[in-house]
Amino acid sequence: MQMTWIISLGMEEPELKLRTLLFGVWLTSSTVLLMTQAVLAEIEQRDKSVISEVPRIGELKQPSTSAASLLAQDPSRIGVAQVTRVRINPTPTGIEVVLETAEGAALQATTRVEGNTAIADIPNAVLALPEGKEFRAENPGDSITAVTVTQLNANRVQVSVTGSAAIAQVQSRPSGLVLGITPATEAPVSGAEAPEEELAEEPEEEEVVVTATRTEETVENVPRSVTVITRQQIEEQRALNNNLGDILGKLVPGFGPPTLTTRNRGQNLRGRPPAVLIDGVPQTTNNRFFTELRTIDPSAVERVEVIRGPSAIFGADATGGIINIITGRPTKDFTSRVSLGTNAALGKLQGDSFGFLGQYGISGTQGIFDYRFDLSLSSSGSFFDAEGDRIPFEDIDDTESINALAKIGVNIDEQQRLQVSVNHFRDRRDSDCITDPIVLALPGRQKARVLCVGGRELDNDPTRRNTVASLNYSHKNIFGSQLDTQLYYRNIFFSNDLADLRPLRQLVFQNRLEAENWGGRLQVRTPLSQSANVLWGVDYNKEENGVPLDVIDLLTYNATGRRVARVIGTRDNIPPYSIDNLGVFAQLQWEVSPQWALSGGARYNRIGFDVEDYTTVFTDRQIQGGSNNFDDVVFNAGVVYQPTDTISLFANFAQGFSLPDFGRVLNEPRFVSVNNSFQETEAQKVDSFEVGVRGNWNSLQATLSGFYSRSKLGSALVVGPNGITQQVRAPQRNYGVEATLDWQASRAWRLGGTITWNEGENSLNDNDNYLALSSIEVQPLKLSAYIENETLPGWRNRLQLLHVGNRDRAFNDGVDRFRISGFTTLDLISSVRLGQGTLSLGVQNLLNEQYFPITSQERTGFFETQNFAAPGRTISLLYTIEF
Q1: Which of 736-765 are b and which e, b meaning 16 or more Cβ less than 10 Å from the residue's Cβ?
Q2: Taking a C-beta distance cutoff of 8 angstroms, is the pair 270, 734 a contact?
Q3: CA-based nearest residue to 823, from 872, 759, 751
Q4: In order along the chain (883 residues), what is the average pLDDT of each group of 10 residues?
Q5: In this structure, are strands 275-278 and 321-327 parallel, antiparallel, or unpaired?
């Protein structure tokens, strides 16, 4: 056996690039022993440096003759680790130095910084290298001038990493010892010390995926297609847009393009809906209002992990994949962070066009306690399209938002940790303007128009409120296993703006979603050997929700010209119902050799559904309630093969399991009893196959993958003749290709992009006559590209392009009553160090393109009043400072 010790050198200034893993060859579901070896961590504190030890299986080698002789001559050195190989691997943020050891020996190190050199001293170690007792590499990466590994004395090895201008910090992580190297924006004056605020900055994060196998694991070892959006990328994109759904729409392959509203309707992953989590807590309700990504402010987010393709590892509702939002973690030293910003339509620099945002946060550690508090406030003004017309968004303009995040943790001892987290988000809209219904009376397809009535009064302002609380406990060593538990509670309240159904029906109403989720997770990671472990546990989730409908007094509403909306009664648009979700799982992983890694597992899901007798709102039909139970076992299996140090092949088979949107079934049912509605309420099971390849060379990273998924009973949305969305249950298949490219052409220049092509069909008559899925479900071709330049030290500029293609397959098949017309947008982001902070300038839609987002183009029939144009050229300023 061998051990691998990793020092990862991260660059802060160069942006972490979009990394996607793509996999090849399906592994049979009978694979039962799997993945990387158990983590054995020993933590000690010295000179304010965090020391960690990372076991990882390496390539089996015999010690050199000189090393063997040393051991033979001195029996007291039998516990000395033999370093048999040193490797340097390029990463998007710098390099990593890998020390491989024989005989399963563990390494530990103390680190320090001397000038521009980071030094790691490793006691009880001896070099047994083919090249002798010293390893040296010149200029192995940007800003790194030399790496040396030398034998200081009989029992001590030293690693030195020298940068052209750098400050090093050490951060302890379960996956290894990470030595972050932050290159200074300007070379310090000889003899001068680095600024104090730079010493307090966090080291660059190693890309880690928590959601793929429910344990921390580097992206390169996950046999799934993964995209990690880092903190640096989020901060960069916030200069353009503070909407998390729009940020992901521009950066994540396979994910639908930005909607430019608070709703992520149509933003599927590979043509199927994803499950959204915040720190592992589910945010997706069965009755989807498409606001899962509008439940947290991006300023509170540390990173976002996107697992593309069906997954049941976290439970149901992830037939498209998983979007796990990771909130900011406490820092070692006390840190304050302030952000202030504003934005406006560039052609409408007037009062009602301006929006504002502010954020303040503190974080630190005091003894065994650590904490983090973030508070953000924002207000949006009016939006204008490229033709200068105001956009009647009805859900994002004239809106005030608040987000508060609190985390308090206690390290009970070296093995145990307890943490309490609370996140509260609220949107509230107060506007005198609505979308003008006159467009319904005009011939041809019309752009939505604004109608400002003045003095508007609503009993209930449109509001979106989301509160999540969680309690997490972990123990690193219980009889050799690691235990992680979580209890959570979530309360959701969404109240939409008024819906005026006239002249379709003489009804004006206001919908709202009232839902609660509570549940827990327990998982245990048990090592089976040095190279294999099993993750097993149980999950439970209870969801209760319903959609009451507030009926508005038509006499008052008409008499005041739509100014006054008084509630005269409440009915159940969708009756209250509950869902119980229980899952038991086991996930095994095995690192067969340095080239091969296998993984696989199974999960048993049991989902119960219950609803009382009720009366439908629009048809006044009496429906007999009832309950149903659905259960099944789903499998996943994957393989990673590295024929060389720079090329990886991936393959994955995975199954997803989910319930349909019961709200759409119960709203206007085609039956008189819930218990007799087997096909409408039956769960769907999705099989997915994926193959791919990834290359990671010195300054170039590229990925390519293809996927295919199928389900005997899918769950897809279509738009009816009157514009009302319906749910269709039929056999369904989805397939496509994704690719990414990132090139660091030089220290100053970076460029790259992504491309996504996917399609999908279902068979409405179950006779193998497949028709195209609606463009609500399947996005057109999406291409993104960027070019970035460090024009001067501390001043960076980025141009990014988004192209969305045409799609008329569903229209030609008679499924859609609309065609998707493509569009191309260009954004500019410019950031410069100013004082102790960073000033960012963003210009969205730089060329002032007049276009309609996909979610607007699919609004037809009665909902043509929501055919919103996109905002025109919009300018934003954001200043952020940490101290």
Answers
A1: bbbbbbbbbeeeeebbbbbbbbbbbbbebe
A2: yes
A3: 872
A4: 40 36 31 30 35 34 35 42 79 72 66 73 80 77 80 80 61 39 38 33 46 67 88 93 94 93 88 92 85 91 91 82 92 92 85 90 95 96 93 89 96 95 94 89 91 88 94 94 96 90 82 92 93 93 92 92 91 90 93 91 92 82 85 93 91 92 78 70 92 91 95 90 85 96 93 96 82 93 96 93 96 93 97 91 96 93 90 95 89
A5: parallel
CB contact set of 378 (below 8 Å; sequence gap of 6+) = 242, 297, 355, 356, 357, 358, 400, 401
3-state secondary structure 565-579: ECEEEEEEEEEEEEE
Distance CA 421, CA 277 (A): 14
Question: Which run of H or of E encompasses 121?
Answer: strand 117-123
User: Residues 6 or more apart from 114 whose CB is under 8 A from it?
Assistant: none
Q: What is the pLDDT of residue 722?
A: 80
φ, ψ (nearest 5 deg) of residue 832: -145, 140
Residue 727, both tokens = 């749910």
| d(C-alpha 366, C-alpha 211), whole Å | 30
Q: Write the DSSP assignment of 437-469 as a string of letters.
A: GGGGGSSS-----EEE-SS-EESS--EEEEEEE
Stated as kind and residue range, the H or E segment containing 250 is helix 244-251
Cα–Cα distance list, 332 to 170, 258, 423 (Å): 11, 36, 21
Report the distance separating Cα 104 and Cα 835, nearest Å: 50
Question: Which pLDDT belongs to residue 79?
Answer: 53
Radius of gyration of the chain (CA): 28
The backbone torsions φ and ψ at residue 253, rounded to the nearest 5 degrees and listed phi first, read -65, 150
Strand partners, 803: 783, 824
* Amino acid, single-letter form, for residue 844: Q
Q: What angle do CA 810, 813, 817 make, to 5 degrees?
A: 60
- Rounded CA-CA distance 68/401 in Å is 66
- Angle (CA) 173-175-180 rounded to 5° is 55
Residue 773, classified by CB atoms within 10 Å of its CB into exposed (0-12), middle (13-18) or buried (19+), is: buried
Helix (H, G, I), strand (E, B) or coil at 663: helix
Q: Which amino acid is at 550?
A: D
Task: Give the pLDDT of residue 334.
Answer: 93
Other beta carbons less than 10 A from residue 600's beta carbon: 27
Q: For the chain, how many residues are written?
A: 883
Integer angstrom CA distances of residue 26 from 223, 505, 655, 838: 11, 53, 12, 47
**Direct distance between the N- and C-terminal alpha carbons of the chain, in angstroms, rounded to an integer:** 46
Tell me the H-state helices in 448-546. none
Question: Encoding tokens for residue 862?
Answer: 């009665």
Q: Which residue carries 């199927």 as its tokens? A: 272
3-state secondary structure at position 747 = coil
Report d(CA 652, CA 311) in Å as an integer: 11
Q: Look up residue 845 and give its DSSP letter.
A: S
Neighbours of 69 (CB within 10 A): 11
Residue 171: partners with Cβ closer than 8 Å, 6 or more residues away: 50, 178, 180, 202, 203
The pairing of strands 45-46 and 49-50 is: antiparallel
Q: Which two tokens stand for residue 360?
A: 């303040």
Distance CA 412, CA 415 (A): 8
Which tokens in the block code for residue 298? 């991006």
- pLDDT at 710 (0 to 100): 95
Q: What is the DSSP letter of 873?
A: S
pTM for this one?
A: 0.77
- 106's CB contacts (< 8 A; 6+ apart) are 3, 40, 42, 53, 55, 81
Neighbour tally for 677: CB within 10 Å:
19
CB atoms within 10 A of CB 234: 19
